[in-house]
Amino acid sequence: MKLSKRITLLVSIVLAATILGVSLSLLLYVRNTTLSLAVEQTQRKQQNLSTSFSEMANYYAASSDSDAVHYSLIKLCFSRFADRYSVLMRDGEVIVSGVSVDPSAYVPIDDSAYSDNTPVAVTVQGRNLLIAGSAARVSGRTYSVYVVEDVTDVHTGIRRMAWIFAAVSFGAIVIGAAAVALLVRHSTKPITLLSDAAKEIADGAYQKRVAIRTKDEVGRLGEDFNRMAAAVETKITELEERNERQRLFIGGVTHEFKTPMTGLLLHAGLLRRANLSEDERDASLAHIESQTAWLERLTQNLLKLTTSEDDIEKRPVELPELLDEIREGVEPKLNERGATLSVQCEPQTLVLNADLWRSLLSNLIVNAANAYDADAPEKPIVLSVTGRTFSVSDHGRGIPKEAQSRIFEPFFRVDKSRSKRQGGSGLGLALVKRIADAHGASVAVDSEPDKGTTVSVTLP
Amino acid sequence: MKNRILVVEDDAAIRDAVLLNLQFADYDAVAFDDGKKAADALECDHAYDLALLDIMLPGMDGFELFGLMEQYGIPVIYMTAKTDSASEIKGLRDGAEDYIVKPFDPLTLMVRIEKVLKRVGKWNAVYRVKDIVVNTETHTVTKGGEPIELQPLEFDVLVALLRHKNMTVSRERLLSEVWGFDYLGETRMVDVKISALRKKLGLEDTIRTIPKLGYRLEER
Known about the structure:
Chain A has 460 residues and is α+β, with helices and mostly antiparallel strands.
């Protein structure tokens, strides 16, 4: 059963029980009060009647009176106080009566019951009557003085009131239950909203949010839910982006491997199957060697690309020494291209991984040498260290503005054919970026086409 | 007359290997390592029967070169390292005859070249080895001008060897090229046909048995 239905049912039952209980007890109280009032009135009336009658009768009556005189006097005295509900009897005979019933049949009076006039409720011919009676002694004779009060109207009134109470209670219960249902539905609506939103998010609609604006706990839950959904969305987007980068990277790696693989397979096939001359065999072997060397370089760089901050070891390194080593390392390549390197550096000690840093700077220097057209008369390259910033500058072709944001992507080449012929793997700058990242260093590129390029790496 | 083939490929290893394979199969091959250079050369000499184009080329890429090829009526086979279907579809929709994905098998490349040349009607139907002339159109073989009778199967095996002249062809490959599909049958039948060919055509020394690999028809 749904929570809202369960709460509605439960609250409605409690509400109905409360309303019914209150109505019933109110009804009973009113009924009892009304009835006891009637009883009290009847009793007092009877008492007044009885007392007044007996006092007057005893005052005027004399024992010497004849029966006829006596009865006339009695009747006179009684009539003086009686109304249409009063009855005077003697020895079971009605002397004066305004009613059609014989009260002595319901409330018999003898001498012993002289003072007890508690009213008795009886129903005669569909009428509710209260009969109160007592004995009165006049000149040695005993009379019965009755008051027969018709309380049918009181009973009818109480019954009518009961119906009204029932109707009002029923109405209250119906309205109350409806109000409860609405209230519960309203207060569980956010839960339904959250549940629907959670389902949508689970189905991949990560941008889904809930609109719960109340200031209560449910509103806070809604806010928290939205915050969670936002966090999930951010994370998912991040993962998707990373996945996409990885996919592109793997695609790039595969593509890069295909060219040397093709060369290797073709020449291995020739060596194995073809009728080659001595020279042709040598040429094939040379191709196989160079293609394998290229693949080796590619795999070395790929391996370095997996470097992360956690697994590099940093040590204090003396600066001019490290730069001299780097210069020695790149010298053959620079000579080959006719480029000259000048190093500007003040002695200082920096904490870094010397092997990776050497690789980073060598890459930048060779890139700088390759930035010159082959027939450029001079190819100066400057490596300078200022504070914690290493920069490598050239006055070569420069990098087109639209390409500058992409040069650190693996396998991105500004000029696809040129860098390939220069032996580039397409991983050089990706490697630079990765090594810098692993050191927490930032990389900045300042380049203008045909003026030159400066790449700066700043240690934190 | 030999079929003339243009090769544009910037990777030296692949270019040299493809050139060698083409020469072995008696094609007249001309190679360029740069799209722009190839385009310039086409201006004065465009008498090619087929072009083998790499897609990522310096100077001018393979797709750009295609326009020129169309102008001169040269059918194109792309040699591409791109496996993504987008570039394949682009190549073929533009009207390229075929494409072959790197790394490829040189024997398959030869078969594809032959198919394209036949389709565009430029196929030189005549193979020559020593004083033997094999005409694949008339299905006739002459040796020193004298006609030689060959069984159909012997003829097809001879053509397959000639198609891959100077390259070793396995028995399985010979069978599959003769029947046009991978035939997992008796490779001994090939040996029988080879020895018949050697005998009928006097090619005992020319058709060499390469141990563990297959047969090679040599002529250099």
